[in-house]
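re: ur question from the group chat, yeah i did fold both. here u go
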Amino acid sequence: MEHLKKELQEIENKGLLRKMKLLEGAQEPKVVLEGREVLNLSSNNYLGLANDPRIKKAATEAIEIYGIGSGASRLISGNMELHAKLEEKIAQFKNAECALLFNTGYMANAGIISSFMGKDDIIFSDKLNHASIVDGIILSRAEYKRYTHCDVKSLERMLQSSKGYKNRLIVTDTVFSMDGDVAPLIEIAALAEKYDAWVFVDEAHATGVLGKNGKGAVEHFAVEEQIDIQMGTLSKALGTFGAFVCGSKYFIDFLINKSRSFIYTTSLPPAICAASIASIDIVLNEPQRRKRLWKNADFLRNGLKNLGFDTMNSKTTIIPVLIKDVHKTLEFSKELFNENIYVQSIRHPTVPEHEARLRVTVTSEHSINDLTYALDTFEAIGKKLGIVQ
């Protein structure tokens, strides 16, 4: 095991060693981290639902009826009625024919892509897609082409030169988790139709956030009819846990029979399903949460840009602050924590080398006073470290 210690030391020397901080209590705008109350700007709890009393009530009531665990996989111990109800709710929410639950977004992407694409097929993937998409592609053994991030001209060149494959798939995040920008879905859908390709989108960071009704980027761009497969998570804006995929009935039936990450794992606890049903209802019935979220995101993003920070091409609630130098990024995060603000530093391999950044996320429940304090603190530390003038 000595080589593992050596490798860990090398990781630490490069400023890339990851460590977890102890968080006490629930996910809220302010949390107790390492024994200190801090302003939490590192959570994907975009709509503040992770500790909502109505969702907790739905979960506890489900526990009284259904217990804690689900016993086994749904093909072994049975398809519990709350699994079926949640899938019906998700299909309605996403305007899809059918939906299927997975335990995590990672398991969904890895299990879906690897089940229906194979060695005679080709997959076109945005260069900055999530690691779970990349791993799903590798498991599929399909030909793999990465197009330049959000560049439809790069994608079209690859599509033009990809004759002779059985099936073609274009796969993209809709909101990119480390950059905060949005995929050009209208153009991608048009290319898919032109070159006879399927489209798979990962709506993890768009579900509950984008669209008139919070249904995601597919709703926002009005491309429901052109997108073949929609994956999303319950664990971010919806505040619970798990993931889902939406598509045609025959596609969902295919996954039930072929997706290893669905077949060979114990299913979601029923209480999580009940909580998720309640959460979707809140998203649909309380659009003011999204309005507050976007007001806060615009306020913080514009404030950081006006101070001279590079927020890249962010257009969403994910606001990167590009610093590039790893050690300076770590120092900035440490200085923020000293001032009771929690913002994580993001480094290689999560982002490309020399693109280290602070990943700032905002929720609907942050106050303008919270965000003003954050901006003042960013300015002071940015000047101290020579990042802004």
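okk and heres the other one u asked abt
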Amino acid sequence: MLTKAYIPYGGYYSSPFCRWQGKMANENAIVLGASTANRWFTSRDLDPTVIDYLYYGITVAQPRMFYSHNWAAAMLVDGKKDLPGLMVNQACTTSTTCIHLSAVNIEIGAYETAFALMSDRCSNGPHTVWPQPMGPGGEVESENWMMDNFNKDPWGGLKMIQTAEKVAADVGITREECDAVTLKRYEQYQDALTNDRGFQKRYMFPVEVRVSRKKSVMVEEDEGVTPTTAEGLARLKPLESGGVLTFGSQTYPADGNCGFIVTTREKARELSADPKTEIQVISYGFARAKRGYMAAAPVPAAEMALKNAGLKIEEMKAIKTHNPFAVNDINMAKKMGFDVMWMNNYGSSLIYGHPQGPTAGRLIAELLEELVLVGGGYGLWAGCAAGDTGAALVLKVG
């Protein structure tokens, strides 16, 4: 359990998420992430040089990724401070781990203020070749970063969707349950759009993208959300023979970025948009499910985070998850004993897409804002990640 790490209220943001090959497709995610963070600090009238250390989360290679963390750090502070950084890649739980690493170092007094910056671009993913001198004719070994890794875990040997189908078969999850949860998640996302996107505007920050050498546009809203109805979902065919999941009940690749200030209690009050609202990082959990069961990993991770916090699931005022498949939420709700329709208010990655590194960060920002709206309390974020792993985070809004 952590006792000294805090997030200033309003000390976080997420960009909109854009569909694969959409408006952010041609931006270097490192540059776009750092420049967006710099603009956000300016918009909040905050000096980015308050940061002592940067955790930079990225999972899909971009040009000059070798320097990504220190390059992003320099761009973030506009060269006004010699700010060091560390690159973190934990696939879909990258944001959670960046926030936790920040919190742990605040806890031990390594520094006063950290910034967790996460950005990814699934669009125009790298196509790489590796030397294979012992192969026939010395032909190279090729790798498509996105599709090859979606479609096969080199250890588990399965597509990601196949791990969810295995969990569904074990738990007895039906096609009808998956469609019902997907429709509910779409309806919950619509709640975030009411009152001129009132909920999203509590945390969302626009990104500036170039459309030509002389012209840039601001992207202020999500791009790629598919209108969803019960009838439309029912017409879709399962993606795997005999399976329960369709294109409707799984997420899709996206592009985006997000950022979080993590600091001491005193500094958080100084940097907060509302010093009366206190956000504390409470505990972290991690897990690795059995081979080929990625969709099951959030449950043991969440159980660890709750145990480390000395709390029970019944004490959570809100729960958010990274749900690449509807199966994830149904499995978690059944095994942990709560209503699957209650979680993931205002949106989830199942509906607005999955840019990998920043996905969990956006969900955590939404979790914090939901906790503020219900008057405070404990909240739980949990999600799976490539390689049958999972992570979880408990936070408190007071």
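fwiw on the second one: Residues 93 and 385 are 6 Å apart (CA to CA). The mean pLDDT is 97. idk if thats what u expected
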